[in-house]
Design brief:
heterodimer, A: mainly alpha, Four Helix Bundle (Hemerythrin (Met), subunit A), 0% strand, globular, B: mainly alpha, Helix Hairpins
């Protein structure tokens, strides 16, 4: 129990710090690297929540796939323009006010929530349960997701192709 | 840690992502903010799944991750096309469809 508390705070600090860095650092490339750190920290949260399969998917797809695509896109676009991209922010005060208001609204809901639910015993064989749910009650959704992924990849390929 | 701790953590990450989406000029920066927001949603789904001992939340988190990957791939392809045509990725200057 003690290890979970220490782990939670460690992961939470890393997650919040790297998230802030993602939205505040002026260098776009650094922002992507901080996003990778934030995604790995999110994977740590999944581990704390007894979801090792989700942790693996998070590392493979997000920290592996998405970050690689983002780095590629930044390098490609920088080559196209021939200069480094420095990104600036606008409406910083307005954006901070709006997101703080959203945060206060959500926290208000959480505070007014009735009673603290006790942590039930972990689901036995959670990865197997996920697999059975994917091919059982959620089989149609799973297949639709495959169609969506193929359509999105074909669309991306079509958009990014060169004319010749 | 109680359920509320995970929900508060997710809410803060969501707010940070929202700040990024609202304040970034660069289209890729806006995409990064959207990534953060979707991650916060995944934390919520996994936390509710754990505290209700129900595997459906994890399945939905998987679906969210897959949809996010599709969204990033398509979004970056669009960013590259915009770069090729307009030579800029500044969201303020992409006002071709403004009435």
């Amino acid at each position: 129990m003690r290890a979970e508390i220490v782990g939670f705070w460690a992961v939470a600090v890393v997650l919040l710090a790297s998230s802030l860095a993602v939205v505040l650092t002026p260098n776009l490339f650094h922002a992507v690297l901080f996003l990778a750190a934030a995604l790995v920290a999110t994977g740590g949260v999944f581990l704390l929540l007894d979801a090792p399969f989700l942790f693996g998917v998070q590392l493979l797809l997000y920290a592996g796939g998405v970050v690689t695509i983002l780095v590629f896109a930044i390098m490609l676009t920088e080559r196209l323009v021939g200069q480094r991209i420095v990104q600036s922010s606008r409406f910083v005060l307005n954006a901070a006010v709006v997101s703080a208001a959203v945060l206060v609204g959500i926290l208000g809901f959480l505070v007014r929530r009735s009673g603290e639910a006790a942590r039930p015993p972990a689901i036995p064989d959670v990865t197997g349960a996920i697999g059975r749910a994917l091919v059982g009650p959620f089989a149609a959704t799973f297949e639709l997701l495959g169609v969506l992924l193929v359509a999105a990849l074909l669309g991306a390929l079509y958009l990014a192709r060169t004319d010749d | 840690m109680p359920l509320t701790a995970y929900l508060v953590l997710a809410a803060v990450v969501f707010a940070i992502g929202l700040f990024g989406v609202l304040s970034r000029r660069n289209a890729v920066g806006i995409l990064l903010g959207i990534e953060l927001m979707l991650n916060a949603v995944n934390i919520n789904l996994a936390a509710f799944a754990r505290f209700h001992a129900d595997v459906v939340g994890l399945v939905f988190a998987l679906f969210t991750i897959a949809i996010t990957v599709a969204e990033v791939g398509l979004g970056l392809a669009i960013v590259i096309v915009i770069f090729r045509v307009r030579r800029t990725v500044d969201a303020d200057r992409l006002d071709l469809l403004r009435g």
